[in-house]
Amino acid sequence: MNKYIPRDCSLKGRPFHLFRLLIQYHEPELCSFLDTKKITPDSYALNWLGSLFSCYCSIEVTQAIWDGYLQQADPFFIYFLMLIILVNAKEVILAQESNSKEEVIQFLENTPSSLNLEDIEDLFSLAQYYCSKTPASFRKDNHHLFGSTLLGIKDDDADLSQALCLAISVSEILQANQLQGEGVRFFVVDCRPAEQYNAGHLSTAFHLDSDLMLQNPSEFAQSVKSLLEAQKQSIESGSIAGGEHLCFMGSGREEEDMYMNMVLAHFLQKNKEYVSIASGGFMALQQHLADINVDGPENGYGHWIASTSGSRSSVSSSLDGESSNGSNDRGMKSLVNKMTVALKTKSVNVREKVISFIENTSTPVDRMSFNLPWPDRTCTERHVSSSDRVGKPYRGVKPVFSIGDEEEYDTDEIDSSSMSDDDRKEVVNIQTWINKPDVKHHFPCKEVKESGHIFPSHLLVTATHMYCLREILSRKGLAYIQSRQALNSVVKITSKKKHPELITFKYGNSSTSGIEILAIERYLIPNAGDATKAIKQQIMKVLDALES
User: Fold this and answer.
1) How many domains, in total, are found in the chain?
2) Is the overall model pTM greater than 0.70, yes or no?
């Protein structure tokens, strides 16, 4: 049964999370539309997979599909047949923006019923084309979906529902760009900080410092423009670094790669096709090179690690963070490295027309620190249950509140939103809420999720609460009420040392034993200094009232 129908073929099952990543990789605009409607593949494709289209197609069409599918001897080919069915209906789907979620799902579910016998040849031809444009990691990393039960056992079963985009193994990245012909080739974008890139990097990688997105948005926009120019030129010149598939590489450390995820999310939000992430980042690359060199240097992979000067670094020295000073002439810079270095060394003069991958924010403000009238308490953060008290300090305990720097890689496992996507039902008019008489402050901002996704939002501060309204992109002027937090539940406001406009709000309860963190929210706020000062002053008024 599982040879051609994937296991876990059920609501919210892994096969459907994988299918969404495939749609995003090839048709990001269509994927974005369905995401906006909150339509997941299992809501319309459950019976597509479960019955191999027999629930919707005539007997003749079903037999033709089954014959072709079995002849392919590739269980993953069903994914590309499903993808082509969506692609062929793309224009009709996108035209249903005003339709309800249920109406769109019903249309999607019945789409295969329109297939005729004469359509099957074209269906398979297009599926084969899309298949040839898909990285091999799509199959290799998910082979356990098909076959025997024993093969289906996987120790490291990543949660695809949380995946930002399709992940590519570092071994495929290295092998793909050595191949000739029409196969998948990657243009690797190294998003680590400059000091890490300088210490050692993939010799064919273009450097895009993700820190710039917050530190210097205009320079980041110029870097993105140079990236796209470098990609185009490397493809035209036939460079080994060339490839139409963008693959972003981070360090492999989750806390460090948060900013890379933000950059990656921007590319996805701009509907850039063929966007992926290097699985495990640079750490995985180093480990892979060390593993394949165990059998001897004749493997020929040693030249892949280089420093910004262009000199080769051995795998062992790269792992140790040291670069080799060998005099081998093969350390010449590639086309991409030349453009990266040129970009770094020239003065930063932003062109009048820069690519609009991100919106510029205002100049970062200085970090803030306030001395409070009560002594600091030890902050003990822990997960709590929904039955715990929210937003009210314990009787007889002074509220604890502070504003200051956040540790460079301070991460928290608590969900950063006070409401789940499924619960976010109330839709409001943004301007109506801004003009409410009890709204004292309004700050346009961008909500930042742990995954790196960024959502245009508005922070509204009243005498007692702070609201986050997330804009509905498909409905101009309207927003969801994303969160509602009592001001007296704010226990800490912090900013990143490198990115002072990225503000983190922590909410919780104070007790004699410390602080219980209940929720965490992060926002990119232009003129963050003014915003946090105003919010702090309003919080102090609330706390003073409670004290009195």
Assistant:
1) 3
2) no
